[in-house]
Amino acid sequence: MDSINVKKMGLAVGLTFALLHLGCVSVMLFTSHETTVAFFNSLLHGQSFPVNR
């Protein structure tokens, strides 16, 4: 069994989180505030976070 290539692993993790970040930013840009809160609340399994206005 070969060892993990640190550079490839770092690139893969970095690109994965960059794509997740871009997805979150696009959801926040193209939806209303209430829809964004509802969407991320459903992703976090219904945990209640207060909405500051």
Overview of the structural elements:
The protein has 53 residues and is mainly alpha-helical. Helix content is 68%, strand content 0%. The chain has two helices and no strands. It has helices spanning 6-30, 33-43. The radius of gyration is 16 Å and the shape is elongated. The termini are far apart. The model has no long low-confidence stretch (mean pLDDT 87).
Summarize the structure.
Helix content is about 70%, strand content about 0%. It has about 55 residues and is an all-alpha fold. The model has no long low-confidence stretch (mean pLDDT about 85).
SSE arrangement:
Blueprint: H1 6-30, H2 33-43
Assembly state (oligomeric): single chain
Q: Would you tell me the overall average pLDDT? A: 87
**Helix/strand class:** mainly alpha
- Helix content percent band: 55-70%
Strand content: under 5%
Major sheet summary line: none
The number of strands is 0
Net shape:
elongated
| Unreliable residue stretches | none
What structural keywords apply?
53 residues, 2 helices, mainly alpha
